[in-house]
Specification:
It contains 6 helices and 15 strands. By secondary structure, it is an alpha/beta fold. The protein folds into 2 domains: 88 residues, Elongation Factor Tu (Ef-tu), domain 3 (Beta Barrel); 167 residues, Nucleotide-binding domain of ferredoxin-NADP reductase (FNR) module (Rossmann fold, 3-Layer(aba) Sandwich), CATH 3.40.50. A 7-stranded antiparallel sheet has the order 4-3-7-1-2-6-5. It has a 6-stranded mixed sheet with strand order 10-9-8-11-12-15, sandwiched between helices. Strands 13-14 form a two-stranded antiparallel sheet. The longest helix is centred in the middle third of the chain and has 14 residues. Bound molecules: flavin-adenine dinucleotide.
Length: 268
């Protein structure tokens, strides 16, 4: 439970309220992570929050993308290069990317959900020939709030069908407008041999999962990240209990066959 000291090696604003931090270990490092896992990040004197790991840093540390919504996330977003934070983890379940070898793969991200899915897409791009058709659909509020735009282009070049939809276009936007759910009908996949990874607001995950299942994808092959409020990260406090699951241990990545009934339970 004791956080390890990590130093902010770089801080990159990715949109108005969101930054990507590269965190490097100072003495002793957390072990390697699997795509989908999260760390508990401690902002000194403020508190600790769960944040998905969005990538490896060459320094051996983690990249994490954080949106300022309250006291702790704001403190972390305001951290400067050289500042110390505390890190525990990695915790939680992972996206089963190797298990999708030979299959079509759909990655669906809403807003900040792309941060948790970035390691998945990187893995798919790096080993592109192992998979069938790979589609990434992304929904974002405006073109300006789109995460990792340069990487989206690199993933396109790697053979991934990347489609982006925005809620509110600006004058330069020429792409589709609406909800990310509208993009499911535009991608090509063979339902019986498709794996899907979905992360975003719960309402979006529920709609995408239900649509994929309706089109013939097995609910056991649709995985989603249930990012309910967590406190301890190690299954002690019960804060993230959802039905029979303690999401910090049994999640955040849960397949739709288990998650479907739980998604109707509102958070405390
Ligand atoms: C497994 C997991 C992975 C996460 N990954 C990321 C990430 O990559 N980047 C990121 O910015 N955030 C992520 N979050 C959400 C992040 O943990 C919360 O934004 C943070 O705990 C808010 O704490 P705070 O003290 O800043 O604000 P608080 O004052 O605690 O909360 C501010 C507002 O945010 C809402 N909120 C708190 N926690 C959540 C949550 N889990 N989901 C939705 N709304 C919440 C509160 O209800 C409140 O309205 C993740 C959460 C989980 C459980």
């Amino acid at each position: 439970m004791t956080p390890l000291p990590y130093r902010v090696r770089s801080r990159r604003p990715v949109r108005a309220d969101t930054v990507s931090l590269t965190l490097a270990p100072v003495e002793g490092a957390c072990p390697p992570f699997l795509p989908g896992q999260f760390t508990m990040i401690y902002a000194r004197g403020v508190g600790e929050i769960p944040v998905s790991i969005s990538g490896w840093a060459r320094s051996g540390g983690y990249q994490q993308t954080i949106r300022a919504v309250g006291a702790v996330s704001r403190a972390l977003c305001h951290a400067r290069r050289g500042d110390l934070v505390g890190l525990r983890g990695p915790y939680g379940t992972a996206w089963d990317v190797p298990g999708a070898a030979g299959m079509d793969v759909i990655v669906a991200a809403g807003g900040l959900g792309l941060a948790a899915l970035r390691p998945v897409v990187r893995e798919l791009a790096a080993r592109r020939s192992r998979y069938g058709r790979v589609s990434l659909i992304v929904g974002t509020r405006t073109p300006m709030t789109l995460l990792y735009p340069r990487e989206l282009d690199a993933w396109r070049r790697a053979g991934i069908d990347v489609q982006v939809i925005v809620d509110h276009p600006d004058h330069a936007w020429e792409g589709p407008v609406g909800m990310v759910t509208a993009l499911v009908g535009r991608i090509v996949f063979e339902p019986r041999r498709t794996a899907a990874y979905v992360c975003g607001p719960e309402v979006m995950m529920r709609a995408i999962a239900a649509d994929l299942v309706r089109r013939g994808v097995s609910p056991a092959r649709v995985a989603m990240s249930l990012e309910r409020n967590m406190k301890c990260g190690v299954g002690r406090c019960g804060h993230c209990q959802l039905g029979p699951l303690l999401l910090c241990l049994d999640g955040p990545v849960v397949t739709y066959d288990r998650a479907a009934a739980l998604l109707s339970v509102s958070e405390l």
